[in-house]
Backbone:
């Protein structure tokens, strides 16, 4: 906190706008503050925020998968982001099937617009729903088999000799591409309403020719079907649902060209997705900004310590503007830490975050940033849709955050001994059993090597300035320490 205090005093001495303090992460003090929060708030995430964050991630992923998602562009019908909104109208059918996995049969729901790789990912989600993503087999190492009643099997792939072609364009194979193979009749006689179709049966098997990736495939780690096919694909444009040269510029003077919808239709579609996700967004907001009381202080001690420190520094510097202090707290905690956690749940959980999910999380995190602002947002016809989606909730969010800051300020100040014990308890909470054993043998060496190395990478470009500053500070009298520092930096 000494470095942070020096930064704040230096900013005030240079007559810089105090409201911009801690807004960036350029100085060593600001970088250390970010890491300090990451370390000390880990138990709070684990006990209070982790569950609603994970549920929000799963809700977004589930909502996106209920509609078509273009595997090339990342656009989705149920996107929360206008940039990733699939504007073209598509008829989508649900394909209900089962996956045969050893002695287990698991039901799955696919869309006929799903590529084979998307289908494999959905099947893997069903098979490994409680398994960390890093422990799951990658989809590109597996083939998808369609198993018929006749006992024969058909290998389904994104690229093979049957891909639909339109001039220079080649369409990625989808489940619907193989619909004729799936619509066989059962041996029983048809009833009055039509023929009976058995459930589609799938199986994942090790890939027979997994030897590399299709270089022209946009989505990561796509296996090549054959070197010949790959060579032919490189001379063509690949698309899934929408050809990339069809853009919103095709919409002219209120007319819909090539199936693209007008902008007036986009916002209701986005709002529909937002209404589905709103309860999960609310739960996460309440978990992060839960107003503490004397009887139930859910605020981490690190947050109380930081806010008291900022209040004290403001008084020392002579800043009494409440709006400035509010911005300091916002810049140091919500926008620095919580927004990063919301945008990157893969920092916390062992999951895979697609670009489409990332775009939705970006919209939600932007709403949190706007809620922390003290200035009212003026909505016009040019306001981005990402800001319009949460316009009705914004005032309540701002009031809740203001009450959260005020409630923390009213809590009793932490005693130095209490905070030191909190730091020690946090260290023990974050250690694995093996690390705890190591810590008992070498209590002063916990993470010291890696921490010093990270600091060294920051300091090394400024070696001359650091050595000169040490000389000016009189450290030269401590010959051994000074020489060791100079040697390591040289």
Residues:
């Amino acid at each position: 906190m000494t470095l942070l205090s020096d930064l704040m005093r230096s900013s005030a001495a240079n007559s810089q706008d105090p409201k911009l303090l801690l807004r960036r992460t350029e100085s060593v003090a600001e970088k250390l503050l970010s890491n300090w929060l990451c370390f000390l708030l880990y138990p709070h995430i684990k006990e209070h925020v982790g569950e609603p964050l994970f549920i929000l991630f799963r809700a977004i992923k589930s909502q996106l998968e209920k509609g078509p998602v273009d595997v090339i562009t990342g656009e989705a019908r149920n996107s929360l982001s206008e940039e990733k909104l699939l504007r073209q109208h598509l008829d989508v059918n649900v394909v209900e099937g089962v996956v045969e996995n050893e002695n287990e049969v698991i039901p799955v729901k696919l869309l006929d617009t799903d590529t084979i790789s998307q289908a494999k990912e959905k099947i893997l989600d069903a098979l490994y729903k409680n398994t960390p993503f890093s422990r799951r087999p990658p989809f590109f190492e597996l083939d998808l088999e369609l198993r018929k009643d006749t006992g024969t099997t058909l290998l389904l792939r994104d690229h093979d000799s049957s891909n639909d072609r339109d001039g220079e364009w080649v369409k990625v194979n989808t489940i619907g591409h193989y619909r004729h193979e799936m619509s066989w009749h059962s041996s029983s006689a048809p009833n009055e309403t039509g023929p009976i179709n058995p459930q589609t049966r799938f199986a994942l098997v090790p890939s027979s020719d997994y030897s590399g990736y299709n270089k022209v495939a946009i989505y990561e780690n796509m296996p090549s079907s054959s070197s010949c096919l790959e060579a032919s694909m490189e001379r063509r444009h690949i698309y899934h649902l929408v050809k990339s040269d069809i853009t919103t510029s095709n919409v002219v003077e209120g007319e819909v060209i090539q199936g693209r919808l007008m902008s007036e239709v986009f916002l209701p579609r986005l709002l529909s997705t937002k209404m589905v996700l709103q309860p999960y967004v609310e739960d996460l907001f309440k978990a992060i900004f839960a107003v503490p009381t004397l009887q139930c202080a859910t605020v981490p001690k690190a947050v109380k310590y930081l806010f008291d420190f900022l209040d004290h520094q403001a008084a020392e510097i002579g800043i009494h503007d409440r709006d400035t202090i509010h911005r300091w707290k916002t810049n140091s905690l919500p926008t620095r830490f919580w927004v990063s956690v919301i945008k990157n749940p893969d920092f916390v959980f062992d999951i895979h975050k697609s670009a489409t999910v990332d775009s939705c999380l970006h919209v939600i995190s932007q709403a949190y940033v706007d809620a922390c602002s003290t200035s009212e947002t003026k909505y016009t016809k040019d306001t981005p849709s990402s800001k319009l989606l949460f316009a009705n909730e914004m005032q309540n969010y701002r009031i809740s955050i203001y009450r959260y800051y005020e409630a923390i300020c009213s809590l009793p100040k932490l005693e130095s001994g209490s905070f030191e014990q909190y730091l020690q308890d946090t260290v023990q909470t974050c250690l694995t059993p093996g690390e705890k054993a190591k810590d008992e043998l070498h209590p002063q060496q916990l993470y010291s090597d890696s921490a010093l190395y990270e600091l060294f990478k920051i300091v090394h470009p400024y070696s001359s300035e650091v050595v000169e500053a040490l000389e000016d500070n009189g450290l030269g009298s401590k010959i051994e320490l000074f020489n060791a520092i100079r040697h390591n930096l040289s």
Summary: Strands lie at 94-101, 104-111, 142-147, 153-156, 165-166, 169-171, 200-206, 237-239.
